[in-house]
């Protein structure tokens, strides 16, 4: 029998706008995420939800789980977010608008998030955090100067285009710094990383443990 090929077109025909991926260890936190996304416009018609399952032990770490999720994603955009984020105002339409705005500003963007450190000159003469987030450090922090090109992004919420994937390093392990690593990889690929104005609540406690220091 002669094989029947699939002819691939140079366009994204997916009807799913977002693939929302989370690294899940705590089911209660993840259920809160799912409820908030549904409340703010992420429906089965426009989004899919995928979970890297660490509920019974760590099958995945921060540098590996993206690689397992990409082949299963159908959305035009892929969101990688913590299980403990919660939408509290901004929703589906807001995120689409922010990404369309970013596309017009810089078609070479590859990674976007809600919190990062601005791009600095080689002499490191200036540095600043740019974000819009509610977290353990306060409510509704930031919100100005966005979008902004950044050197690093926090891992609580990251967005990429499925057609232009950026993957983490293969020789690093752990649960810290994989956001900055993605930003570096984006630069190596000829793209850029940006912080955008997408306000949500991150319930993480920002704890610094021994694993943080080792990495």
Would you tell me the overall average pLDDT? Answer: 91
Weakly predicted, low-confidence segments: 211-215
Judged by helices, strands and strand pairing, the structural class is: alpha+beta
Rounded to the nearest angstrom, the radius of gyration is 17 Å
Share of β-strand residues:
25-35%
- Compressed to H and E, one letter per element, the order equals EHEHEEHEEEEEEHEEH
Helical content (DSSP H or I, runs of 4+) = 10-25%
Number of strands: 12
Biggest sheet, open or closed, and with what strands and sense?
10 strands, mixed
Number of helices: 5
Separation of termini? Answer: 53 Å
Structural shape: globular
Name the strands of the widest sheet in spatial order. Answer: 2-1-3-10-5-11-9-6-7-8
What tags apply to this protein structure?
215 residues, alpha+beta, ten-stranded mixed beta sheet, two-stranded antiparallel sheet, disordered C terminus
Overview of this protein structure:
The chain is α+β, with helices and mostly antiparallel strands. 22% of the residues lie in helices and 28% in strands. The chain is built from five helices and twelve strands. The chain has helices at 27-39, 65-69, 92-105, 178-188, 210-214, and strands at residues 18-24, 47-53, 77-82, 85-86, 109-113, 115-118, 129-135, 138-142, 148-153, 157-161, 192-195, 201-202. Strands 2-1-3-10-5-11-9-6-7-8 form a ten-stranded mixed sheet. β1 (18-24), α1 (27-39) and β2 (47-53) form a beta-alpha-beta unit. The termini are far apart. Residues 211-215 have low confidence and may be disordered.
């Amino acid at each position: 029998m002669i094989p029947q090929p699939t002819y691939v077109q140079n366009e994204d025909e997916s009807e799913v706008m977002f693939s929302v991926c989370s690294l899940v260890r705590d089911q209660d936190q993840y259920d809160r995420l799912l409820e908030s996304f549904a409340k703010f416009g992420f429906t089965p018609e426009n989004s899919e939800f995928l979970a890297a399952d660490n509920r019974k032990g760590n099958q995945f770490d921060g540098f590996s789980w993206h690689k397992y999720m990409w082949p299963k994603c159908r959305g035009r955009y892929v969101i990688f977010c913590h299980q403990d984020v919660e939408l509290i105002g901004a929703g589906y339409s807001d995120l689409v608008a922010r990404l369309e705005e970013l596309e017009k500003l810089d078609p070479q963007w590859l990674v976007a998030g809600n919190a990062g450190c601005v791009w600095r000159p080689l002499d490191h003469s200036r540095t600043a955090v740019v974000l819009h987030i509610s977290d353990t450090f306060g409510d509704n922090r930031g919100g100005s100067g966005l979008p902004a090109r950044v050197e690093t992004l926090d891992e609580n919420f990251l967005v990429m285009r499925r057609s232009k994937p950026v993957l983490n390093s293969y020789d690093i392990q752990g649960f810290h710094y994989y956001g900055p690593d993605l930003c570096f990889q984006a630069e190596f690929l000829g793209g850029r990383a940006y912080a955008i104005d997408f306000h949500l609540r991150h319930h993480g406690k920002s704890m610094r443990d021994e694993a943080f220091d080792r990495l």
